[in-house]
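REQUEST ID: PR-0412
SUBMITTED BY: lab tech R.K.
PRIORITY: routine
TASK: structure prediction, single protein chain
INPUT:
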Amino acid sequence: MAVCVAIIGKENAPKFIRCTDRDQELDFHYKVHSSLDIIEEKLLAASHPKATEPREQFLGMLYATEEHKIYGYVTNTKMKIIIVIDANHQALRDNEIRAMFRKLHGAYADAVCNPFYIPGDQVTSKKFTETVLSLLVKS
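STATUS: complete
OUTPUT:
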């Protein structure tokens, strides 16, 4: 499954990042933030006046390295969800990745609908964290 999950705000500020390997956490932060440029390019292309299809929330694979594949998803409120998958894990198909994003999006929506959540703050919901941990690879 996933080795890193990140929620990035509409101003590209991280709201939640969780990784399986604490030793490579800085590397995962770099990969997540470098994927934001690709997300912005895809959003700009989808909003182009000559674009005929409506923008889809699932952006697909943003890029791949030797070790990881990075996938992106953008909500209607411009929140970006990024999942980093181990490149050696070949069994995951696009529909399984989409299901992971739908599960994360639903959990995120539940977390921010909490009346005690302050919009723009870090996501600290225990239930959301449990959902993320269920998607991460057990090392």
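NOTES: The longest helix spans residues 25-46.
REVIEWED BY: pending
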